[in-house]
Fold this protein.
Amino acid sequence: MKEKKIKLEQGTINKGIIAVASGKGGVGKSTVTVNLATALAASGYQVGIIDTDVRGFSVPRILGTKEQPKARGEHEIIPPKTHGIKMISMGSFVDENSPIIWRSPLLGGALEQFFKDVNWGELDYLVLDLPPGTGDMPLNIMQKIPHAHLLVVTTPQITATKVAGRIGSMAEKMDLNLLGVVENMAYYQCKECGNRDYIFGEGGGLELAKFMKTELLGSLPLLSEIRRRSDSGSPIVVDEPEAEISKLFMD
Amino acid sequence: MKEKKIKLEQGTINKGIIAVASGKGGVGKSTVTVNLATALAASGYQVGIIDTDVRGFSVPRILGTKEQPKARGEHEIIPPKTHGIKMISMGSFVDENSPIIWRSPLLGGALEQFFKDVNWGELDYLVLDLPPGTGDMPLNIMQKIPHAHLLVVTTPQITATKVAGRIGSMAEKMDLNLLGVVENMAYYQCKECGNRDYIFGEGGGLELAKFMKTELLGSLPLLSEIRRRSDSGSPIVVDEPEAEISKLFMD
Ligand SMILES: Nc1ncnc2c1ncn2[C@@H]1O[C@H](COP(=O)(O)OP(=O)(O)O)[C@@H](O)[C@H]1O
Ligand SMILES: Nc1ncnc2c1ncn2[C@@H]1O[C@H](COP(=O)(O)OP(=O)(O)O)[C@@H](O)[C@H]1O
Ligand SMILES: [Zn+2]
């Protein structure tokens, strides 16, 4: 990853911004965002997350963040820190029961505020969880972070990869640097007898990476442990760094 | 199901309209829509489907429909028939590459046209695949079909059921009749050793049905056969009516 230092109003990002996108909802984009961030933090980096997924602010739940951000003055927001990661979610500023239609116009202004008013301090990486899909929302956000690296999460089905491919061509138009593709729910491995079943098909991740002229960074299995930890707010990388799945996130 | 005969411009619906909704994308709503319709057709009923899911018109692919609707005059559209099911998709009137934002305003007018200008003939059931979520789109459609029965598809995770619960309260406000809940991807059963793994958790479907004061109609397993058949356009109920999964749809 080409490193580029970015100076913020209240802090710096020493290595870069990683924006995590997906073609459809429900492919595990937020799960990958949080586990990637915790893997980076476990390797000793200073990491921040911004949750801009207006369809469902699930980053705070998956990361296990209970505190709200605190305001020190009019233009200084202190982000809560969980498992060594500073995190700000649109969800702390928007009512989760408000219709989605109201949430997206707020997003543009809120994002600028998160870069200016949040006291991020010294960060190595800032990870952004983008809204799902290829509509105007993720596009508007990508335009505000021209220097970001893009990570695309997909599941193996043809339809998930076709839609995610549109993200790739969007990124090309805007000259964002494509980091690679993560294929999630790639297969299921039985705990009892070790049999592997490619439930959602095989090879979709690799096909998408080739189509987008980038690399397949890894394939994650469908694992009840991942879902259980997401629901309880303790990402798998934190508790079991040795587990096979954590290694995949660490690479 | 309370039966109600509905007179259309070009046909009648003898038993009723079933609208299939879901709180989030990717839970298998379109897959359940098509398999429910094919199960009804296999039991000898005359069935039609309208695909209004503007986020991705996947009903034609899952049903295996290759033909386009034909126009006989300005106000007579003949729907293509596949596996004995007449089907009209918004996808045949809207370019799949157009941004989603443009698709929803068209939906209202198109739906009225589908009821007036399509020559449905004698139908027992009309099944509608709604757009996912609890935003304005599915709401606007539900308002146009006040006499419909609502089927809610969810996966077992807490978040999927929480969002789907919002659909239930929407339906109550609009006096739609709740048919029940279908829990999809409820568990994975290993083909080799029979071990069951509740990957996405247990009991979410039942909890949602209780919350919405309705019934859990069935729990479908995560099965690669279902995905493979959806990708190849031959719904499982058509080829293997005896399979356990088909029986679940038939009930
Ligand atoms: N590899 C995996 N194995 C098992 N469950 C997963 C996996 N990845 C994601 N999940 C579960 O799938 C659901 C959707 O994941 P989420 O990250 O919220 O998706 P998205 O952000 O793409 O909408 C969550 O319940 C999550 O716990
Ligand atoms: N019970 C199931 N087992 C295996 N795959 C499934 C099952 N239900 C749906 N799928 C697959 O999951 C993906 C999402 O299903 P789809 O019906 O398109 O969801 P939605 O309409 O809710 O967005 C598709 O690739 C489909 O083939
Ligand atoms: Zn097994």
Observations:
- The pocket of adenosine-5'-diphosphate (ligand 1) is lined by residues A 22, 25-31, 58, 132, 184-185, 220, 222-223, 226-227, 230; B 157, 199 (CB under 6 Å).
- The two ends of chain B are 12 Å apart (CA to CA).
- Residues 6-250 of chain B form a domain with the Rossmann fold fold (CATH 3.40.50.300).
- Chain B is about 35% helix and 25% strand.
